[in-house]
Amino acid sequence: MSRGTQQSPVSLDARSRRDLDVRDDLDVADFFDHELPHLARERSHLAVPGARELGIESCTFGTPEGAWTLSVDLDADAVRVERGDSGVARIELDADEVRRLVDDRITPMTLVAAGKVRATRGDLGDFLDWWVVLRALVDGRAVHTAGSIDFVDRDGAPLDLQRSFTPADSDADLAHFLAQAGFLHLRGWFDTDAMDAISHDIDTALPRYAPDDGRSWWARTSDGTHRAVRLQGFDAHSSTAADLLASDAFARIGALTGDGHISVGTVEALEKPLGVVEGISDLPWHKDCSLGMHSYTCSGLTIGISVTGADATSGQLAVVPGSHRALVQPAFHRREWGLPPRPLPTRTGDVTVHCSCTLHMSHAPTDRERRVLYTSFRLPPLDPSLVDHQVAIDVVREAAYKKVDQPSRTP
User: What pLDDT was estimated at residue 101?
Assistant: First the structure.
């Protein structure tokens, strides 16, 4: 099925840290008194334009070692770091939270998931806004500003972000679009008869899962029914699904870049019921790295295989093109970014692909229910310990996504 034999020159590997870069001995006072002000002098130009667009207010970070207020001096185009409690917002952090935040091992959303966000003034939105400024200063990445991302095709012309692809399209075209937009819609990638067989296998597998079994997510619908909405390890119950993971069509997706992506080797079956009133079935805007570790693990590829197809009334996926290239808040969408969302309606047998750092969400179905398989490709580890790191990340992410609510900011 492959349309090219040469390794793709495209790379999605955004990793800039290894385990050895973790600083468990970081001195919090020294960081705020010396390291961060030094970084602000060197890198404020990466943070201030984006901070200006976001309208960031000053924020105090209170720690057991003291309090420091961060502000943006628009006249001097500079981020200021000063001792004291004078911020419009105030966020409380312990020393370990500061260390992990600085090293990109957590984000504000990790603390939301753990129920540990302590905003004595302001709210989570303030924390997330200052998180992008902190990442700009520490990581040397520019905060996204509207119009800073261009989308061009292989010939340099404007990219058609509504484009979808078929098996007849070239790997080079697919890889280029994926690198530019952060997603793909692959039409007719798998046979509809196989999808019918998988839907039957879902029916057969459902009685083998139970609440609190550690292998499934459950939700309650408005009629009081308690339903499984995510079946992990589904390939153990479906030879057809297992065959998809071993197929050339599936391997072709993982080989689009030159990064050596590796299949996780298992697949989850999801149902999208109507009228969910308890539990989580449809996730709000987020990046898969929204709980941290972007600079250690991104970018993997998340693969959605449409068992029943989806549209605006049946739980379709939506993505924000280019968001994988943008340093933005990882848990909501803002119009100010100038990155309009794109819905991804699919038919049976279609596939969606998105980068782990592409902002995406799933709509709640309103007319008919949806079935979809999800699996992924990971980047090969930079060192063996990252394998265990990724497993730990997946465990935390799974638990967190069951309880994270959408931040209170303008959509």
Answer: 97
pLDDT for the residue numbered 5: 42
Within 8 A by CB and 6+ apart from 267, the residues are 234, 235, 241, 242, 244, 245, 305, 373, 374, 375
A 10 A CB-CB count for 191 gives: 14
| pTM metric for this prediction | 0.92
The pLDDT of residue 407 is: 45
- Give the pLDDT confidence score for residue 20 in this predicted structure: 81
Helix ranges (DSSP H) in 210-359: 239-245, 248-254, 294-297
Instruction: Note the pLDDT of residue 395.
Output: 46
Tally of CB atoms within 10 A around 241: 25
Secondary structure of residue 72 in the 3-state scheme: strand
Which residues of the chain fall below pLDDT 50? 1-2, 4-6, 388, 390-392, 395-397, 400-411
**Nearest-10 crossing angle of helices 124-139, 95-102:** 50
Calpha distance 90→95 (Å, rounded) = 16
Helical packing angle, 36-54 and 124-139, nearest 10°: 130
Rounded to a whole number, what is the distance in angstroms from the first to the last CA of the chain? Answer: 40
**What is the side-by-side order of every strand in the sheet holding 342-344?**
342-344, 317-319, 360-362
Element (H, E) at 38: helix 36-54
Q: Report the C-alpha gap between 372 and 256 in whole angstroms.
A: 22
| Neighbour-count burial for 116-133, b at 16+ CB within 10 Å, e otherwise | ebebeebebbbbbbbbbb
The pLDDT, as a whole number, for residue 19 is 82
Long-range contacts of 34-37 (CB under 8 A, 24+ apart): 36/68, 36/81, 36/137, 36/138, 37/81
What pLDDT is stored for residue 227 in this prediction?
Answer: 96
Q: Is the Cβ–Cβ distance between 342 and 319 less than 8 Å?
A: yes
Task: State the burial class of residue 84 (Cβ atoms within 10 Å of its Cβ: 0-12, 13-18, 19+).
Answer: exposed
Radius of gyration for the chain, computed over Cα atoms and rounded to the nearest angstrom: 22
- Beta-carbon contacts of 291 under 8 Å, excluding residues fewer than 6 positions away, are 106, 107, 109, 110, 113, 393, 396, 397, 400
For residue 279, the model assigns a pLDDT of: 87
Pairing of strands 317-319, 342-344: antiparallel
State the pairing for strand pair 301-306/351-355: antiparallel
Residue type at position 287: K
Kindly give the residue spans of alpha helices, DSSP state H, lying in 143-292: 171-181, 192-205, 239-245, 248-254
Q: Tell me which H or E stretch contains 373.
A: strand 370-378
